[in-house]
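Something for you to look into today, if you have time. Could you write out one complete protein record for me, on any chain you like? The space below this message is yours for that.
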Amino acid sequence: MGFSGFGEQVVDFYEGLAADNSKVYWDGHKSVYAADVRAPMVALLEELESEFGKGAVFRPHRDVRFAKDKSPYKTHCGAVIEQGRGGGAYYVQVSAEGLTIGGGSYAMASDQLARYRTAVDGDTAGPALEKILETLSGQGWEILGDRLKTRPRGVDPGHPRLELLRHRSIYTMRSWDPDDVLHEPETLDRVRAGWRQLRGFNEWCADHIGVSDQGW
């Protein structure tokens, strides 16, 4: 079956999970997650696969081994299409807050970070990234990422792209509050149109950051 929108209970399901993040709640609402959340997300990815590649839905359980917060379940469902971690990604998420999409490099290993900084410092790739991000910002995307509080070691404090060089990850996101479209096929149009806007950014990440040689 094709994508027809997320189920009518998706927002209520995640609002309930946020209030009672327990196995009892999860077990009692597992069928809602399967029908109104995961199945539509899988169908959405399948609709987009021919243009963007094969995606994967993240597991609903949190990794709590090293976390102070021991709540067992994620309060959103996310999915990603990527060739390798950090080298550019197309992301989509549904939650009680609505729909979120994004892309870019969500995490960089040390070799990826070195390549990123070399590219940003360069006279061609650096200005190209500036232009890409300026365009995305003008289209309503928020530019995000983990950043150093100061400048990287050895970087001139007057470098024209100092703010970009401070990034240790760089990605962009945009969101829609819950609305009728969330439950309709037009959500596919929102995701597809947004990801098309991200194509140049992800291509830059693939060309200049790439997949880590160190593995994850």
Notes: The chain has a mean pLDDT of 95.
